[in-house]
Design goal:
Elements lengths: L9 E4 L2 E4 L5 E7 L14 H14 L3 E5 L12 H18 L4 E4 L3 H10 L3 E4 L9 H8 L2 E5 L17 H18 L5 E4 L8 H9 L2 H4 L6 E2 L5 H7 L7 H13 L4 E4 L2 H16 L3
Parallel strand pairs: 3-4, 3-10, 4-5, 5-6, 6-7, 7-8, 9-10
Antiparallel strand pairs: 1-2
Helix pairs in contact: 1-2, 2-3, 3-4, 9-10
Length: 285
């Protein structure tokens, strides 16, 4: 990938080149965990994970994001060896089969290194490189893309009454700072993510979506992951399996306010939402 603030939105991952300004791009979620908040255990078996990844690509996913540790509120960390066992073989197999870039959702340097060696080209780090200082040099050495996400606290503690003075300003300043740290490490392949649902109350999530333009103005591609999140459940008073329409509304809003990539579970439906929302954005008035 070759992106610098102010120089455009061309994303290169291996032989794949995306113009992120041309349309909204879709990142499909593949949780190979027994306890994910949205689909815990559904794709824990490797063959089912592989089949689902292939299906998401057929449905329009531009990236596949593979995670082996649940980061739902209150979750406990998974040992490195177990996360490695869950994710790296799946990455290696999908790298042989898929025509789209693979992202590894991890903050652990050992897992990131093995996944990049196995064919991943993106590291999606919920800690923005803070939890494991060895991760950033590995990303730089592989000339990989990094996704920097904002999170207050850790997954275990993040929803214990999070508070902000001005949530948008604090998230923007944090991501800008972390991006500068990455660039000083030799990484210029950076995407930023406001971390919807990670250390935020309902109002914080809504404000971040409404004011997403403030993150866009920092100059890096913006990824938003509202899919099936608890703030949607709070608004609709619905369980996770009934949040499709709420997710669609959040995805549409994210796109209208500037998101370049949306991270979703329901690829087919959200691809359609993105196409319509992109069409609305393109109309000259």
């Amino acid at each position: 990938m070759s992106i610098n603030p102010g120089t455009g939105l061309t994303l290169k991952c291996g032989s794949i080149v995306y113009d992120l300004a041309s349309r909204t791009h879709i990142m499909g979620v593949l949780n190979v965990t027994p306890d994910s908040f949205s689909d815990g255990g559904k794709f824990f078996e490797p063959q089912r994970a592989l089949d689902w990844a292939m299906q998401m690509v057929e449905e329009g996913a531009d990236f596949i994001d593979i995670g082996g540790e649940s980061t739902r509120p209150g979750s406990e960390p998974v040992p490195v060896e177990e996360e490695f066992r869950r994710t790296v073989p799946v990455v290696a197999e999908l790298a042989k089969r898929l025509r789209v870039p693979i992202s590894i959702d991890t903050y652990k340097s050992e897992v990131a290194s093995a996944a990049l060696d196995a064919g991943a080209t993106i590291v999606n780090d919920i800690s923005a490189g803070r939890f494991d200082p060895a991760l950033l040099p590995i990303v730089a050495r592989h000339k990989a893309t990094i996704v920097l996400m904002h999170m207050k606290g850790t997954p275990k503690t993040m929803q214990e009454n999070p508070s902000y003075g001005n949530v948008t300003e604090e998230v923007r300043d944090f991501l800008q700072n972390r991006a500068e740290v990455c660039r000083n490490e030799g990484i210029d392949q950076i995407i930023v993510d406001p971390g919807i649902g990670f250390g935020k109350q309902l109002y914080h999530n809504l404000a971040l979506l409404r004011e997403l333009h403030a993150l866009v103005e920092v100059g890096y591609p913006v990824l938003v992951g509202p899919s099936r999140k608890s703030f949607i459940g709070m608004i609709l008073d619905l369980p996770v399996e009934e949040r499709l329409e709420g997710t669609a509304a959040a995805v549409a809003a994210s796109i209208l306010y500037g998101a370049h990539i949306v991270r979703v579970h329901d690829v087919r439906a959200m691809k359609r939402v993105a196409k319509v929302t992109d069409a609305i954005k393109r109309v000259a008035v």
